[in-house]
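Input record, target 12 of the design panel.
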């Protein structure tokens, strides 16, 4: 089992920034692709960003490219999402996600099948 705990959500005005963090525990952190999904009211959960086990590869959904940056600290078992130039349409519950367990998974694995483990979610609200 992998436990994921998010922090850092809140309310911000459009154009502002927030940084989400996720602390992982339970299994070997570097065996997992880590990422972020979000779910807005009335919508399905969608992929936002992912990072490879080494941190050398990242991927983003088109709507956040150039504004969001995903990173991980394997020494601290944490993954972060820096969100800049926030827009009202970024308002959602953001979930930390992990997939893999054997370093065979890739970012494409997460984008195609989602995650094996989820955090509890943290609310991000962007006011106009």
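The sequence produced for target 12 reads:
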């Amino acid at each position: 089992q992998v436990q994921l705990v998010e922090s850092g959500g809140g309310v911000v005005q459009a154009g502002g920034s927030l940084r989400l963090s996720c602390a992982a525990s339970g299994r070997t952190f570097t065996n997992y692709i880590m990422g972020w999904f979000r779910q807005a009211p009335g919508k399905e959960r969608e992929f936002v960003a992912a990072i490879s086990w080494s941190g050398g590869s990242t991927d983003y959904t088109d709507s956040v490219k150039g504004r969001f940056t995903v990173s991980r600290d394997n020494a601290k078992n944490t993954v972060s999402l820096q969100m800049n130039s926030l827009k009202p349409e970024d308002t959602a519950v953001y979930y930390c996600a992990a997939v893999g367990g054997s370093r065979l998974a890739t970012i494409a694995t997460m984008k195609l099948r989602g995650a094996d483990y989820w955090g509890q979610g943290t609310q991000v609200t962007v006011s106009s």
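The chain has a mean pLDDT of 95.
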